[in-house]
Design brief:
Length: 221
């Protein structure tokens, strides 16, 4: 793999946000995720390659280390910040889709859940695919989804959940939306979510990745 991508992967894995960041101490004064993503793009490396070969595997490594109790929440947070900084550089590439909007898409991470990296990627790709995205952020409950849907009745809805505990809130939100708006289309995703769970809770579609979400919306238009 390209040397810049290897360095970027390390920066995200170890939480080196940018050059000015003094954490982690052994990477002091080195380029961080910010500078390396910029450099990778300047060298003509494809944004999808940067995302899929460096950034996402780095976060997977962080998750594995957290599971093995080799790192704790503060380190995981630094990695998330480094990932967020790198994503800012990729955003314009994924958002440069058509200007004429194909429709509206409301997205949020379900109540009790603060993970937003995957949700932001899905939002970015869908926006890049030509939809207007209304991003409600994290820890979003059924009332907020329903209010936003009522203001934008033509919109489809996306729910993200990263915790097995908050998957239960996903079920409650899908139930509440479907009760009030049975014709609404709800797409769900996030690491613990499965096709089987989607069928069980009555959502319309499950996608393990952002591209699947874009393809589903394309089919609806
Ligand atoms: Co958290 N965390 N975390 N965490 N965290 C996980 C999810 C965990 C698996 C780590 C582990 O134990 N190995 C574990 C969950 C265990 C479980 O429930 N089974 C966990 C835990 C336990 C926790 C806390 C409870 C820790 C604690 O406090 N003791 C706590 C909970 C806080 C809360 O939400 N209430 C917590 C906190 C945090 C941080 C705040 C430190 C940080 C999040 C920062 C942020 O998001 N801004 C964090 C992080 C970074 C992670 C890991 C390491 C990485 C998540 C990530 O961003 N992945 C994660 C371990 C892991 O996933 N390997 C972990 C990269 C991202 C691109 O992937 O989000 O899966 P992902 O999204 C993918 C797909 O899932 C899909 O597309 C994306 C791109 O491919 N997708 C969709 C996502 N949403 C979609 C929606 C769609 C379609 C596709 O349609 C609408």
């Amino acid at each position: 793999m390209n040397e810049i991508l290897i360095k970027l992967m390390h920066c995200i894995e170890f939480g080196k946000i940018d050059k000015a960041c003094s954490y982690p101490p052994n990477m002091k004064d080195q380029d961080g995720a910010d500078e390396l993503t910029k450099k990778a793009l300047e060298r003509g490396i494809n944004p999808t390659e940067i995302l899929e070969n460096a950034m996402i595997p780095a976060m997977a490594a962080v998750g594995d280390k957290f599971t093995r109790k080799e790192i704790y929440v503060p380190q995981m947070l630094m990695s998330a910040k480094a990932m967020g900084k790198a994503m800012l550089h990729l955003k314009p590439f994924f958002q440069s889709g058509e200007t004429k909007r194909k429709g509206k898409f409301i997205i949020g991470t379900v109540s009790g859940d603060l993970h937003d990296i995957g949700k932001n990627l899905v939002a970015m790709m869908i926006e890049g695919g030509g939809w207007e995205v209304i991003d409600l952020g994290v820890d979003v409950g059924e009332d907020k989804f329903i209010q936003t849907l009522e203001k934008n009745p033509e919109a489809s809805i996306g729910l993200s959940a990263l915790l097995t505990t908050t998957m239960e809130n996903m079920r409650k939100i899908v139930f509440a939306i479907k009760q009030k708006h049975p014709g609404s289309k709800i797409l769900i995703g996030g690491a613990p979510v499965t096709q089987e769970y989607c069928e069980k809770i009555g959502a319309d579609f499950y996608s393990p990745d952002p591209q699947g979400a874009v393809n589903y919306l394309k089919k609806l238009t």
